[in-house]
Each structure stands twice: as C-alpha cells, then as structure tokens.
Amino acid sequence: MIPLCVPNISGNEGKYLAECVSSTYVSTIGPFVTRFEKMVADAAGTAGAAATSAGTAALHAALIAVGVQRDDLVICPSLTFIASANAISHAGAIPWLFDVDPASWTLDPLLLGRELRERTERRDGVRVHIDTGRRVSAIVPVFTLGVPAEMDAIVSIAHEYALKVVVDGAAALGSLYKGKSSGALGADLTMYSFNGNKTTTAGGGGAVAGDDEALLARFRHLTTTGRVGSDYDHDVVAYNYRMTNIQAAVGCAQMERLDEFVAAKRRIAGRYKSAFVGLNGTGLFPDPDWATSSCWFSGIAFHGNGAGKRSGDLRAHLRENGIDARPFWKPMHNQAPYAATPRTAMSTTDALWPGIVTLPCSTHLKENDQDKVIETVLAWFQG
User: Fold this and answer.
1) CA-to-CA distance for 208 and 380, rounded, in angstroms?
2) Among 1, 47, 87, 322, which residue is least crowded by beta carbons within 10 Å?
C-alpha cells in the first residue's frame, strides 16, 4: 500500500533521542525544547514561540491567553478539522461557524465583514451577537492545507470590531502570504501542529508563535500549571501542556529539514496538478494569488452533481490498487457536537467537501510510486 502521508524519519532523530537518554533529560525540561522553540519562531517569522504537548492544547491555551471567556462566541470556518472547534469548546466558548472562500478554502473575509456588520452590535463596550446575546471575542482563521487565509482583510476586520485573532496554522509552517512567513501576518498568536502526519513532526506536539512577549509569557504560564516561583505556589487554574525533551528532540531533527520537506511537498503537488488539470468535472486544490502554500496535502476535488459518489468511487478504486486515498474533513456544521451552534449559510462548504480526494504526498514519496498514483487515477477516468 502506498500510504497517504507518513513521517520522513531519516535525519538526526536517532542521534538526538540518544542524547536525551544519555543526559536523562527526557521530560519537560531540556535543551531540545528551547532549541525547538527557537526553530519554530524563526520559521514562523516571529519573535518567539512556546511548545506544547499537542496542537489542540496550544490552540486552547492561546484562546484563554488572549481573553476568550466562557459562553463567548468565537468565529471559526466550518471546513476544518474538529480540533479547531474543540479547542474553542475547551475554552468554554461556542464556535460561530462560517463558510469559506472558494478560491482558498479558508475563512471568507467578505462574509466575515458582512456578518459582523449585520449580525452583531456594540453593547456596553463589547461586541455582541444579536440573535444569541453572546459576546463575540475572537476569530480563528484556519490555514487549510497550509494555505494562508486572506489575512490583511481578516486582521483589518478584527481591529475594526476589537476582536482577537488566533490562527490555526496547524500545517502552515513553510507557507507564505504575500512573501511573509505564516506567523508574521498580524494575528495575536499562531498555532502549529507537529502531529505524525504533518510536514515536520515531533511524534505529536504543538506550538504557538507570536511577537508579543507578554502574551507569550502568559501562554507559557497557562501551559506550565500556573506555577509561581520555585515553591509550589500557583496563581491561576492552569494546564500541564508542556512538550517533553524527547518530543522536541525529534522536532528539532525534523525542523532542520523544513525547507527540504516543503520543497518536496510542492514538487509532489505540482506533478499532480500537471497530470490532472482539465479532468472532466474536477478542480485542483486551492492556489490563491496571495499565498504560497506549504502543500501539506495534495489531491483533486470533484464538483457538481454526484461529486460525493464520484470521489468515493475513485477512493475505492485506488485502494483496490494498493493506494491509500482519503476523504477530507467533514465540516463542523455536520458534526453532532456542533449541530446547534450558530452558523452562516454554507453554500461553498457544502458543495466542496464531499468531492475532495487526498492522494499520497509523503515528503519521501518515490517518483515511481507517484507515477502509479497518477496512472491509476487517469485509468479510472478513462474507464
């Protein structure tokens, strides 16, 4: 079976793990954590970064750090992995689900501005959602597939309505927005994931990056049990979300090869694009003018009537031929935990997600294996 997306563990991972064991720094204190945070900050284009045990943990703590409170509404695209919405829920808030821009599959800034203008009002110094009476406190743009959202417009709208911006950039390291790194786009904090299927992995783990040192310090405090001083004093209900030195050792070895891995992802995406452009009833993965994607996943998207059935049939055909292919995220407004949450109309998301097919795109995917994927896809269309 040609796998969909597996980690490329062929660098210094073993060497650095051996250093952890020999030094006995295997837990949440150790030099690799500090080194890893510096590497993430440099790649994100920010002044600093703080590592965590998971991307969801990082997003949860980031929302708390910027001031999201219980029963708030937090704006989030419906087309995302459920961790984005879950992190909002973990903070005690409620997702306000939005449709996406068809050009980028990310939060639609035109829709965002219109909904805030028409569906909210200012009461007692805060922005309130008219229908529910809840405070609207933050926006969580998701950089889908490693494609940055239209951040100039989103950040401008956020400032107009006094909302915080916490980016879910889980797979966006290495991407660019108008030539700028993904963490340097005006958000308060940007989250990255290092799960096993990400371009660079720590076997798990996450991080946030940002330029506000005081905000990063608050995030660190929240994720390290809220401990004050060397004694066992704690000044806030906090979390043990620390990354281990072992995780960070793997992460450092991976981050050393970030540019190499992103280049491989883009090369794989480019070959699929060249092979599949113009196939009847399909479109390509997003490539908006403002972004240079990190191309975390690659594939094709069916559109029009029967898109869901066609995508399912193609995936079955690929599996029968030893090729792993998957559907994409089921949107939040179709998920049981979020069935009753506020949402916009979802015309783009509803038309888009059933037809998405993700194809093998590991950074060390062999050219002859990608040839097999391409040939098998084309044979299905011809048949």
Assistant:
1) 42
2) 1
**What is the per-residue pLDDT for 113?**
98
Q: Range(s) for CATH 3.90.1150.10 in the chain?
A: 258-382
pLDDT exceeds cutoff 90 at 228: yes
pLDDT score at 30 = 87
- What single letter denotes the amino acid at residue 195? N
Residues of the chain with CATH 3.40.640.10: 13-255
Angle CA 254–256–258, to nearest 5: 70
**Mean of pLDDT over the chain:** 97
Domain 258-382, CATH: 3.90.1150.10
Give the pLDDT score at 229.
85
Confidence at residue 69, expressed as pLDDT on a 0 to 100 scale = 98
Looking at CATH, the fold of the domain delimited by 13-255 is given as Aspartate Aminotransferase; domain 2 (3.40.640)
pLDDT value at residue 383: 85
pTM value is 0.97
SS (HEC) of the chain? CECCCCCCCCCCHHHHHHHHHHHCCCCCCCHHHHHHHHHHHHHHCCCEEEEECEHHHHHHHHHHHCCCCCCCEEEEECCCCHHHHHHHHHCCCEEEEECECCCCCCECHHHHHHHHHHHEEEECCEEEECCCCCEEEEECCECHHHCCCCHHHHHHHHHHCCCEEEEECCCCCCCEECCEECCCCCCCEEEEECCCCCCCCCCCEEEEEECCHHHHHHHHHHHECCEECCCCEECCCCCECCCCHHHHHHHHHHHCCHHHHHHHHHHHHHHHHHHHCCCCCEEECCCCCCEECCCCCEEEEECCCCHHHHHHHHHHHHHHCCECCECCCCCHHHCHHHCCCCECCCHHHHHHHHHEEEECCCCCCCHHHHHHHHHHHHHHHHC
CB atoms within 10 A of CB 65: 27
In whole angstroms, give the CA distance from residue 337 to residue 347. Answer: 21
Q: What is the CA radius of gyration of the chain?
A: 21
